[in-house]
Amino acid sequence: MSKLGKLTPRGGSCTAALAFALYLFAGSAHAQFGAAAAQSQQGSQANPLPLSGRSGASGGVVATQTAIPGTTTSVNTLNPTVQVSGAYSGSANSTSTRPFSGKLSLQEAVERAIEYNLGAVGLTQAVRQAHGQTRVARSALLPNVSGDFTETDETVNLAALGVRFNAPGFSIPTVVGPFNYMDLRARLTQTVADFTARNNYRAAQESLNATQLSAQDARDLVVLAAGGAYLQVIAAKARVQSAQAQLETANAVYQQTQMQLQFGKVPQIDVNRSQVEVLTQKQRLVSLQNGVSKQKINLARLAGLPPNEQYDISDDVPFAAAPAVSLEDAVKQAFEQRADLKAAQAQVRAAERALTAARDERYPSLSVSVDYGAIGTNPGQAHGTFTAAATLTVPIWRGGRTGGDIEEADAALRQRQAELEDQKSQVESDVRNAYLDLQAASSQVQVAQQNLEVTRQTLAQERQRFEAGVSNDVVVTQAQESVASAELDYINSVFAHNVAKLSLARAIGNAPQSLRQFLKFP
Question: Do 271 and 254 contact (CB within 8 A), yes or no?
Fold first, then answer.
């Protein structure tokens, strides 16, 4: 009784300590209840995927070969083009990290484009982003360790907290404090069983795999873009060389007519026609030279070089037969090798995992948490304390959220499955179109080559007849125009054949590895 009597005076130290203990108990219970309630309400939920697995905003590269509309006197009826759009039409600067000698080979152009073209760079960064998202999804399954230090100096109004205790000869003060304490603590939380989090992680892994395959397919598209641009420069330079040869021929005829005019063999009108032909060829040459400069600027933009024409290309890609591969084998190889088809398959698997994760929201989850630390008024009086808890969360009713997640995931899965079927059809159509273009261009090269030989023979004969005075310059000019047209036909036919081979390499897949096999450049 004497000890109790010493502890009971109003405002005594023991009374304050008891009040402080009641406050800590109430606050701790309130905090633990709030944390448990928040955890039971939140739980694990499925990570929704976008409805479509395709990224249409990144642009693309398409090689087309269409017939020239209307009637034409040319044997060339194919118009090959390589259309580059979106990010693939630009690039980052490559000369700051990779010196440039001023001469660009086809292999170097492709290598620079693969590394610096904006389409490939964007998907490379998308791979890093997807890898980061995978690590985030995995973190829900791994231990989480944290530490904290708390220093508290506080005055508490117990009446405001609802603490009322009155007994004869004993009472708790309304206001406790000021008092202080410190708490140094380490905390560990670990998910033991959470099927939703596990399938979210697997879905993220499949999405990462799909992004990596899309980046590989982007390299194939870059090969088509850079290779096509390089072939366009080769064809443009060949047209310039042909125009220069035609200008030299026109000058020779013009000089010859001037000499014949002096001897009275031809009238002045023949000299005038010859001079007009020279001026026409000069104008054509200027236009073609301008086209070469623009094509070189376009190639520089794709390969990460400064956007100017102050460089030379070092490779020529003459006509060569395509690798002996049947249409059936080409389609089979494409189904096995095309990275975009594999990416579509990975997108379907990711959607299947996401749907499973949504369905697993109905299952209970189990987690454990442990903390250990020292608490006291100062470091010298601190004592070690710990807490160990296991939490089993059983979803009972979430307001229809689980059903909504399942419906959303199922819609994404059905969309990915439809896109996969479309991608299979796209792959086969790419191969068949490239194969048809290759056959047409190969046949046209043969016709253009024969036509070129005939027109050259005709021009030589007409010049001989003109020198002998049997013919006039009109016939020579017509024969010269036929040669010019035949040379352009041959150049365009070889260009169309090379583009078709390049398209077939992209259509089959692994274009960077098979580029030299298909184009057969030095």
Answer: yes
